[in-house]
Amino acid sequence: MFFGFKLHQQTGSTKGFFKKDKRSSLQEALDLIRSRYVDSVGLDSLQDDAMEGIMNHLDPHSVYIPAMDLSEANEDIVGNFEGIGVEFNIFSDTVHVLYVVPQGPSDKAGLQIGDRILKVNDSNIVSKTLPSTAIRKLIRGEEGSKVKLTVLRNNTVQYFYVTRGRIPLPSMDAAYMMDAVTGYIKLNKFSETTYKEFMQAMEMLQAKGMKSLILDLRGNGGGLVSQATSIADEFLDGDKLIVYTQGTNTPRREYRASKEGVFEKGKLAVLVDELSASASEILAGALQDWDRATIVGRRTFGKGLVQEQYDLSDGSAIRLTVARYFTPSGRSIQRPYDKGKKIYMEEIVERYQNGEMQTADSFHVNKTKAFKTKGGRIVYGGGGIMPDVFVPIDSSFYTQHITQLYLDGRFNNFVYTYYIKHLPLWQEFKTPTEFANRYNNTADAWSQLVDYAMKDSINLKKVPATEKKEVEDRIKAFLARFKWRTQGFYEVANASDKIVQKAKEEVSK
């Protein structure tokens, strides 16, 4: 649903857009069911199902959003939500606080990492069946409202009264200097705050002497086109074309560079993978077509459709595909979807099966759709953005025993428990860089992970040495995440990340 979503910014409110003097047959049928059907039925659910059925006959990215889900669906794009400012997970049927937003509502009320939330306004949330979505709805609420939390801390029950507030959802996971001249920025989406966050990070990195930049868009599913094009403008000079859109009922619209950028000359590498989509592909495609950046990683998702959001009169909305994206060279990013949504979505899995994730020679793209970059290099359309420098996926994490731990969340549970048991130890480290350089006791964590896994009959004792080392690196990165969030995770993880290291080589040439 999120891939490539573009808010309908040109026409303003679209409430009543679909109103007509003449009722449709769908509305007539619903009215008849309401007034004549033998049993009582939930008309809202019937209407939702009917709308979803209509959307299923369109492209994979046109979606219907019921009224009850619309607010949450918009949160990632807006860049904030209303709540208490904690991240939680459920371990052993109990809600554990994993992170408290600094200066947020919960921080001000006194909550800490490791607290166990037992009740929300006297509603018991210790349950084997209560899903995390239901718990989230209990905890969240309108800004300014108060919630009572019953918390277990150090085997003592305590009570906290939290005034809910507006909690930011940053689109930037990390920004730091990898060495004296190389900066690194990781973006997880393109929301209303992305360009502002990006510019603040660029100012900070350039003040520290940045001459080369690694921009990480792996896993970035897209978002607002305006944010992606604004960032592209900072890398491109003149009035260069960044992207254009066009559809059967939508005239061509061009997005061009319009001002002097903050980084038009330095070495630039952009990291992508199979989950980089839409706005990420627009940015990577524009920089590739103008030979401004080296694209490193694996072929992107291949989502080049423009959605605009239309609000309906009952509070629901549809995000409707209205045009296609085209890179400056004229190539379409979108891969085919004529065989249906299921096959379209499963194509990502097929890339693992057909060897594309392992060798650059296995790319399955239409070589007849060839285009040229400004410098004359051949690039292809109709299936995402192919990297200039291919780096295969690390398949060692997909062996049976390790995969079991990752898929069901037990690995994360273990690292959290290990972190809480050794809280005084982490206080010795003031920064992620210091932690990355000085913390080397991963052998102890590995030993305890082996014992932890054995309780569920998962034998890690015969895991190859190379895989053991990669798991230890991952444990270290997860420990850094609990203390410094995503900033800490990437500072530690990037030291052993093959794509990041390859990109570092490229910008140093």
From TrEMBL:
List the Pfam families hit by this protein, alphabetically.
Answer: PDZ_6, Peptidase_S41
Q: Name one GO biological process term.
A: proteolysis
Q: What domain of life does the UniProt record list for this protein's source?
A: Bacteria
Q: Which residues form the PDZ domain?
A: 67-125
Q: Quote the cellular component terms of the Gene Ontology held in the record.
A: outer membrane-bounded periplasmic space
Cited InterPro entries: ClpP/crotonase-like_dom_sf (IPR029045), PDZ (IPR001478), PDZ_6 (IPR041489), PDZ_sf (IPR036034), Peptidase_S41A (IPR004447), Tail-specific_protease (IPR005151)
Keyword set, alphabetical order: Hydrolase, Protease, Serine protease
This chain belongs to which protein, by name? Carboxyl-terminal protease
Organism name:
Flavisolibacter tropicus
